[in-house]
Write the structure tokens for this entry.
Amino acid sequence: MAKPTRAQRRARRQQQAEPALAGSGGGAAKPPVRLAPQPPDKPERQPRERGGFGGFGRFLGESVGELKKVEWPGQAQVIQGTVVVLIACIIVGTYLWLADLAFKRLVQDVFLR
């Protein structure tokens, strides 16, 4: 099963009335001490499914769950990122072209005489 989203974790913390972070409060009172919960008993191992698509189906389900949590960029962000990459490619390409011309002359005039 996929991990809960940040918003789901925050909502759960608010329901449980947990302090957000240690040291974030302004008062001199110490935060209450919370004991670590007991770890759950280890479940018995289930035998693996011998079917061809058992693990693959679980993988697809978890992948879909993760993709639902992704914050996809909008059209403006995609265009801006594309422009930045194109400008960077032009700058680096121009630098390499000029360096190639300079080293070509150096090799032909100095090293090949």
The radius of gyration is 29 Å.
